[in-house]
């Protein structure tokens, strides 16, 4: 463990990423408590530029709403969408991959066809269709993102399991008559974890981006203020009010960058051998 | 005894003197934005906004309408109305040919009326009082009505009753007729090419029946799906005309200030679009008049006009737009008064039950408006949840009455009998449509007033009936009226004479010219 | 080898059929239908009008029958008819396909070229600040929402500098021919292609870097080094060539995804491609057209995957032709 942290901290990118993401998480957790102003309230006249009025430090948007409040509340929604959809994707992808890799043969074939099925349709197209079908809400957005992002997990886990399966300690467990699920959960998966963690950090980043794309197309949840929503909403006035899109845009950029850098750092730290397949 | 109402020649002369303040220059190409891309261009069967805008310059109707909504000659050069107001006789212009060279005659008119009654829901309603249509000769058409119908002279514009070439459609399956994709009309421009996803191109009709028109050689309708990209296209000079609604309202002030840019709110008089929220009167909470009035007092409609619509348009006082006939503002008023709204809610015994609000999925402006209204209502104590849908989703919810509050904006077509009554009379409560009485309001007194108003003569009698109807409605608040909308047309100042009628760009390229 | 290809094709066809059937129902689960959309646009409608449209679209038939009709068509290579656009789906897609392919392939070339260059550099200086700097630079375009980059590019290159046209595929009405036409299309292509290219660049940079680091540790590179070959030559001849294999595979997967995934870029730049067609078909519930785009995109992904697999296997004989 110490060794891991040492490696991680030696990786300058990873450290930067970690700092950025920790700050974002802090804001998401405590921001709304520290700044309880609703981001939907029309507090000032519209289009107040940033750094002019101390009550609305980052200016106001087209309706006179506080951009700063939007950023604070948006952090929660954007990170939540990113993390929850990643967790959901993992809970689909890991079992599918593990079962496919462990049992092999027909089961593997079936599982992989299923995975292929979801991977073949362009992911953004599928996500758009799913959100349109379920109608935009935080649940449908998380579900759509999860559904389009689990196949790479399944593939990765399958590959890991395939190679771990042949290891001696797994074989030993098989010989001693341990149940299949015990072997998968206790012997194989813990050892396949590190590449999955790397992938997960990138999936969170992708999910935040995908959510912003959906918002851009008008498929966001209108009851929740997210960064993607803010960028989408401000883009038509970008010429007269750059701050409405630039601040949330930077927020997205930084957190996605942070997640990616962490992924990179984890990759090098956890597993110097396995430095591929980042998606 | 027939009474001449208007002499066509005199009127057209006066119009052209106004237009001729500057001598038009011949030739040139104009690029206009069309948004969204129309599904088809065969106007008699496809009647959505973009189709009307493009095809209104390819097809023609019997009449055109000035910005004051007075009828003007189109394919009919003059008309008379009998004293009992039941017989309308149209004299058609002679020497008019279709784009394929065949002559246009009264047979085409009869055919078109019959076809439109099948293909267009609006033509069907407009024609409901028509008993029979006859053509005594090649250039005369006579409409006989069952009873007088006040707005009858207002239903002959190209979008409502476009003329279809009988020789190409008679006896064919209209739905699959190959001409649907390359429409043939009598209009000043001929369809030339449609590159799907890119542009529609129409070219000058050299044999147009109005001598000397059109002035332009070609018009390109550019398809640009993103609003921000549309304003850049204008700004970089790739597009000369931004018809109303092409760019987001928030961008209008900036674009209006660009060099060589002229803006006009004219050209929508015929439609006089009006925005409101359907209030589902079937919902037990909203069935309470006090709650509905509370909604009206809670809405800051001046804010909506000034901030969301950039000061364009007017706060609506009631069911009728101030631009149409028989409008009155002698009705109860609902200024922005949150305290009063709170009091009314308390009186009504509202306990925070959830009310769903459905904005129109038509882009940023409408989304922002939904947010502002939600905030207004939340401020006075409503518990509001926004329902997000795309266009098909919202259409379905509206058609099935599955909403509490739902934004809409509808055209009023100049006369309360055409565009207002349909939203409040109980006979219009029909499931499976989107434009008539979705709120489920039913009041026998109002029903009778609108029924009488449509067929009463003379106009003073009609006014009396409609005044009364408006008063009752505003007191009852069956829907929450928001704004009379204005969609500014933005164009390069050297595009001249484009907006000359009450439907603006939709038939405007006939007279337009470009100053080089 | 041949049986491998045949097997893959058969499996691919099954996947495609599954996609057709599932999406057929999925799309119809969405609220609203094409008749409702058109009734809404008409500005006036009554139940009779909606019913007429439903009949015209064939939506009044029972679902299994509709599916039967559709699948029968697909099997014979007929993607059906778009009633909304009054045209065969295959023609609508073929109209848009060249524009999308042009955009995708150009974007692709850009991302590969830049990605491999940056990735090689990063691998060389692995673990240093230079490595981090390159990674961050590559990630910048990845981490910024793509529509935002697009908008900024338009502002810079079209509005302020006036160098590039901001929308469309070509200058409408200019009727250029030959070289002039190619240049014109190129100018329109530059911004959308760069926007997508820069986005995918990050992936290839990371991939190339990782892959190169791994290859470097392999025996034959060590041997080469022991033989005293110059570092430059080792890099180019041995490391890069071998490191590119996984990059190529990934590229195969992506190239397909790009085709349908360019929705945002095509929307912002009004590029008349498949992505936009798909999105508009979805909003209009143009069922046949939407399904058609899905089928075509999915088929392309399958084909690209197969081709890259073949290339991979031919180049690297260590991999057997077993599935």
Averaged pLDDT of chain A: 84
Main sheet specs of chain C: 2 strands, antiparallel
Compute the number of helices of chain A: 10
Strand order of the biggest β-sheet of chain C: 1-2
The string of secondary-structure elements of chain C, in order, is HHHHEEHHHHHHHHH
The whole-angstrom Rg of chain A is 22 Å
Amino- and carboxy-terminal Cα gap of chain C: 11 Å
Shape of chain A: elongated
What is the number of E strands of chain A? 0
Radius of gyration of chain C: 24 Å
Number of helices of chain C: 13
End-to-end separation of chain A in angstroms reads 25 Å
Proportion in β-strands of chain A? under 5%
- Structural class designation of chain C: mainly alpha
Kindly state the number of beta strands of chain C.
2
Folded structure, characterized:
The complex is a heterotrimer of chains A (279), B (516) and C (323). With 279 residues, chain A is an all-alpha fold. Chain A has helices at 2-10, 12-34, 67-103, 105-120, 123-134, 138-165, 168-175, 180-216, 227-234, 242-270. In chain A, 74% of the residues lie in helices and 0% in strands. Residues 273-279 of chain A have low confidence and may be disordered. In chain B, 28% of the residues lie in helices and 21% in strands. The radius of gyration of chain B is 23 Å and the shape is globular. In chain B, the strands form six sheets. In chain B, strands 15-19-14-18-16-17 form a six-stranded mixed β-sheet. Chain C is mainly alpha-helical. Chain C is 77% helix and 1% strand. A two-stranded antiparallel ribbon of chain C has the order 1-2. Chain C is globular, with a radius of gyration of 24 Å. The mean pLDDT of chain C is 81. Classes of the chains: A mainly alpha (279), B alpha+beta (516), C mainly alpha (323). At the A-C interface, helix 2, helix 4, helix 5, helix 8 and helix 9 of A face helix 1, helix 6, helix 7, helix 8 and helix 10 of C.
Topology of helices and strands:
The complex is a heterotrimer of chains A (279), B (516) and C (323).
Chain A: H1 2-10, H2 12-34, H3 67-103, H4 105-120, H5 123-134, H6 138-165, H7 168-175, H8 180-216, H9 227-234, H10 242-270
Helix pairs in contact in A: 1-10, 2-3, 2-10, 3-4, 3-6, 3-8, 3-10, 4-6, 5-6, 6-8, 7-8, 8-9, 8-10, 9-10
Chain B: E1 2-6, H1 8-19, E2 29-34, H2 49-55, E3 63-65, E4 71-73, E5 76-82, E6 87-92, H3 106-119, H4 121-126, E7 130-137, E8 140-145, H5 166-169, E9 189-195, E10 199-204, E11 218-223, H6 227-235, E12 241-242, H7 252-256, E13 261-264, E14 274-279, H8 289-298, H9 301-308, E15 314-315, H10 338-348, E16 354-358, H11 364-379, E17 383-386, H12 391-399, E18 405-410, H13 416-419, H14 444-455, H15 459-476, E19 479-484, E20 489-492, E21 495-496, E22 513-514
Parallel strand pairs in B: 2-11, 16-17, 16-18
Antiparallel strand pairs in B: 1-5, 3-4, 5-6, 6-8, 7-8, 9-10, 10-11, 12-20, 13-20, 14-18, 14-19, 15-19, 21-22
Helix pairs in contact in B: 8-10, 14-15
Chain C: H1 2-29, H2 34-41, H3 47-57, H4 63-75, E1 81-82, E2 87-88, H5 89-124, H6 129-143, H7 146-160, H8 178-216, H9 219-226, H10 231-261, H11 263-268, H12 274-283, H13 287-315
């Amino acid at each position: 463990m110490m060794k891991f942290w040492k490696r991680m901290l030696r990786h300058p990118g990873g450290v930067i990423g970690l700092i950025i993401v920790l700050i974002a998480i802090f804001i998401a957790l405590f921001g709304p408590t520290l700044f309880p102003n609703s981001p939907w309230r029309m507090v000032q006249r519209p289009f107040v530029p940033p750094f002019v009025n101390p009550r609305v430090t980052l200016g106001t948007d087209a309706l006179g709403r506080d951009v700063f409040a939007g950023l604070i509340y948006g952090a929660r929604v954007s990170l939540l969408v990113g993390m929850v959809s990643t967790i959901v994707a993992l809970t689909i992808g890991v079992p599918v991959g593990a079962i496919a890799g462990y049992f092999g043969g027909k089961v593997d074939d079936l599982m992989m066809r299923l995975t292929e099925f979801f991977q073949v349709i362009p992911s953004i197209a599928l996500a758009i269709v799913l959100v349109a079908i379920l109608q935009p809400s935080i649940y449908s957005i998380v579900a759509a993102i999860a559904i389009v992002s689990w196949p790479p997990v399944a593939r990765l886990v399958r590959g890991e399991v395939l190679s771990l399966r042949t290891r001696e300690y797994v074989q030993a467990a098989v010989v001693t008559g341990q149940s299949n699920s015990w072997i998968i959960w206790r012997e194989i998966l813990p050892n396949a974890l590190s590449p999955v963690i790397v992938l997960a950090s990138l999936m969170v980043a992708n999910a935040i981006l995908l959510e912003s794309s959906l918002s851009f197309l008008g498929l966001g949840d209108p009851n929740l203020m997210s960064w993607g929503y803010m960028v989408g909403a401000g883009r038509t006035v970008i010429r007269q009010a750059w701050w409405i899109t630039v601040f949330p845009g930077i927020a997205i950029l930084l957190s996605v960058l942070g997640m990616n850098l962490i992924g990179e750092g984890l990759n090098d730290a956890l597993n110097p051998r396995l430095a591929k397949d980042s998606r | 005894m027939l009474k001449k109402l208007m002499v066509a020649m005199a009127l057209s002369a006066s119009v052209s003197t106004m237009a001729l303040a500057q001598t038009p220059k011949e030739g040139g190409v104009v690029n206009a934005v069309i948004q969204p891309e129309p599904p088809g261009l065969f106007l008699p069967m496809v009647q959505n906004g973009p189709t009307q805008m493009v095809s209104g310059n390819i097809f023609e109707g019997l009449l055109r309408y000035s910005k004051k909504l007075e009828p003007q000659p189109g394919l009919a050069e003059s008309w008379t109305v009998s004293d009992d107001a039941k017989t309308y006789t149209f004299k058609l212009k002679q020497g008019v040919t279709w784009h394929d060279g065949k002559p246009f005659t009264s047979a085409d008119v009869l055919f078109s009326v019959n076809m439109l009654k099948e293909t267009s829901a609006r033509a069907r309603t407009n024609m409901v009082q028509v008993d029979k249509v006859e053509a005594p000769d090649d250039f005369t058409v006579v409409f006989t009505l069952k009873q007088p119908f006040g707005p009858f002279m207002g239903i002959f514009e190209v979008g409502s009753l476009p003329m279809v070439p009988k020789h190409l459609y008679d006896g064919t399956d209209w739905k699959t007729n190959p001409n649907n994709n390359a429409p043939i009309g009598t209009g000043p421009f001929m369809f030339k090419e449609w590159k799907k996803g890119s542009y529609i191109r129409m070219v000058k009709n050299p044999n147009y029946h109005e001598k000397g028109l059109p002035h332009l050689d070609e018009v390109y309708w550019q398809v640009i799906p993103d609003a921000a990209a549309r304003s850049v296209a204008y700004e970089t000079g790739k597009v000369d005309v931004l018809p109303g609604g092409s760019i987001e309202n928030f961008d209008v002030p900036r674009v209006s200030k660009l060099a060589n840019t002229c803006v006009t709110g004219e050209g929508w008089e015929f439609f006089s679009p009006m925005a409101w929220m359907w209030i589902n009167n079937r919902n037990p909470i909203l069935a309470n008049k006090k709650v509905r009035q509370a909604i009206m007092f809670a809405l800051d409609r001046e804010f909506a006009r000034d901030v969301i619509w950039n000061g364009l348009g007017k706060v609506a006082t009631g069911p009728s737009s101030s631009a149409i006939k028989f409008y009155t503002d002698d009705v109860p008023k609902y200024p922005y008064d949150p305290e009063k709204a709170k009091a009314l809610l308390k009186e009504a015994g509202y306990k925070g039950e959830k009310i769903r609000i459905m904005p129109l999925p038509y882009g940023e402006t409408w989304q922002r408006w939904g947010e502002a209204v939600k905030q207004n209502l939340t401020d006075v104590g409503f518990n509001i949840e926004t329902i997000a849908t795309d266009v098909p989703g919202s259409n379905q919810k509206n058609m099935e009455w599955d909403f509490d509050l739902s934004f809409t904006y509808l055209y009023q077509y100049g006369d309360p009998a055409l565009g207002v009554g349909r939203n409040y009379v109980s006979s219009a409560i029909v499931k499976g449509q989107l434009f008539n009485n979705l709120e489920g309001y039913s009041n026998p007194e109002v029903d009778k007033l609108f029924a009488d108003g449509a067929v009463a003569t003379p106009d003073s009698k009609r006014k009396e009936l409609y005044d009364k109807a408006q008063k009752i409605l505003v007191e009852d608040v069956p829907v929450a009226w928001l704004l009379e909308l204005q969609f500014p047309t933005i164009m390069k100042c050297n595009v001249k004479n484009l907006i000359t009628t009450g439907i603006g760009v939709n038939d405007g390229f006939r007279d337009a010219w470009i100053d080089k | 080898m041949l049986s491998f290809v045949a097997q893959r094709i058969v499996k691919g066809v099954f996947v495609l059929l599954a996609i057709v059937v599932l999406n057929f129902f999925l799309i119809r689960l969405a609220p609203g239908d094409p008749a409702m959309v058109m009734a809404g646009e008409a500005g006036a409608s009554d139940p009779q009008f909606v019913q007429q449209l439903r009949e015209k679209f064939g939506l009044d038939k029972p679902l299994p029958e509709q599916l039967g009709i559709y699948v029968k068509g697909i099997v014979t290579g007929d993607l059906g008819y778009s009633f909304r656009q009054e045209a065969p789906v295959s023609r609508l897609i073929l109209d848009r396909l060249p524009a999308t392919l042009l955009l995708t392939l150009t974007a692709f070339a850009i991302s590969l070229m830049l990605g491999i260059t940056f990735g090689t550099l990063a691998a060389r200086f692995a673990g240093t600040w230079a490595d981090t700097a390159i990674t961050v630079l590559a990630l910048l375009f990845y981490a910024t929402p793509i529509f935002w980059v697009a908008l900024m590019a338009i502002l810079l290159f079209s509005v302020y500098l006036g160098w590039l046209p901001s929308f469309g595929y070509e200058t409408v009405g200019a009727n250029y021919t030959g070289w002039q036409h190619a240049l014109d299309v190129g100018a329109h292509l530059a911004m959308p292609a760069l926007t997508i290219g820069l986005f995918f660049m990050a992936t290839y940079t990371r991939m190339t870097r990782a892959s190169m680091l791994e290859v470097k540790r392999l025996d034959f590179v060590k041997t080469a080094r022991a033989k005293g070959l110059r570092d430059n030559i080792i890099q180019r001849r041995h490391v890069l060539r071998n490191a590119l294999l996984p990059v190529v595979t990934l590229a195969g997967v992506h190239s397909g995804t790009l085709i349908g995934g360019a929705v945002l870029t095509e929307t912002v730049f009004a590029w008349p491609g498949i992505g936009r067609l798909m999105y508009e078909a979805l909003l209009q519930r143009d069922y046949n057209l939407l399904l058609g785009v899905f089928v075509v995109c999915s088929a392309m992904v399958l084909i690209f995957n197969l081709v890259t697999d073949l290339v991979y296997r031919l180049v690297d004989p260590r991999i057997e032709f077993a599935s």
